[in-house]
Amino acid sequence: MTPPLTIVGLDLDNTLVTYDDLFHALALERGLIDAATPRLKRDIRDLIRGSLDGEAVWRTLQALAYGRRMPEATLVDGVAEFLAACRRRGADVHIVSHRTSYAAADPTGTDLRQSALDWMRGHGFFDPAGFGLDESRVWFESTRAAKIERIRRLGCTHFVDDLEEVFAEPSFPANVVKVLYAPSNGGAPPIGVTVFGRWVDIGRHIFGER
User: Fold this and answer.
1) DSSP code of 166?
2) Phi/psi at 50 (5° precision)
3) How far is CA 31 from CA 80, 83, 121, in A?
4) What is the pLDDT of residues 120-133, one digit of tens each?
5) For the segment 126-163, what is each residue's pLDDT rounded down to a tens digit?
6) Cα–Cα–Cα angle for 57, 106, 19, rounded to 5 degrees
7) Could you tell me which of 155, 171, 160, 173 has the C-alpha nearest to residue 6?
8) Ramachandran region, residue 120 (left: φ > 0; alpha: ψ -120 to 50; beta: rest)
């Protein structure tokens, strides 16, 4: 009997790609932090938001990180091995990202979706000799609601995201296995959500591989 097809949906930002070092560099360049500040996006964000005009400054940094400076972002540890497992198992992989084309706070007017695609190309996502993903299976949605509707329409059996708010939405499909990627999470997992801090554990959870 042929096993049911595994359709894996993956968030992009802060799930497959990490901006910790990039945000540290951007904030340091602008004198917003000192070199001793931890290289963690969340800590840097909280420090900046607590300063004068902090929210506006943070939005500008975000626009730069997700746009013109995105080539400096890095692949999250373990993602390459996970995508290789998806390929071995014949899983259908979709990347579903809540990302607009442009950011109002972006001083460069960079196309944020194109930046993401260029970053993925640069990291071998669509290379047959690399991860071998299909570029037509990358979906950018302008709202969280549209992202969730895309997940439903794709028929994802599993979805991995770094934001538990996505899974908490009443419209999120109940039959999808919800996996929260939270490398620094110390709290209790939300109801119906399995939390992992490492991609190797996510792979084991989805495929049972050791």
Assistant:
1) H
2) -85, 0
3) 34, 38, 32
4) 999 999 999 999 99
5) 999 999 999 999 999 999 999 999 999 999 999 999 99
6) 70
7) 155
8) alpha
Dmax over Cα atoms in the chain, in whole Å? 62
How many CA atoms does the CB half-sphere of 188 hold within 13 Å?
3
Of residues 35, 8, 40, the one with CA closest to residue 137: 8
Compute the distance between CA of residue 172 and CA of residue 84 in angstroms, rounded to an integer.
27
CB 160 within 8 A of CB 12: no
Helix/strand/coil for 182: coil
DSSP 74-121: EEPTTHHHHHHHHHHHT-EEEEEEE--S--TT-TT---HHHHHHHHHH
Instruction: Locate 143 and state its tokens.
Output: 């709202």
Domains and CATH numbers, the chain: 7-17+74-207 (3.40.50.1000), 20-72 (no CATH)
What is the residue whose two structure tokens read 């890095």?
74
Task: For residues 26 and 155, give the distance between their C-alpha atoms in angstroms, rounded to a whole number.
Answer: 38
Cβ neighbour number for residue 160 with a 10 Å cutoff: 23
The pTM is what? 0.93
Q: How far separated are the first and last CA of the chain, in Å rounded?
A: 24
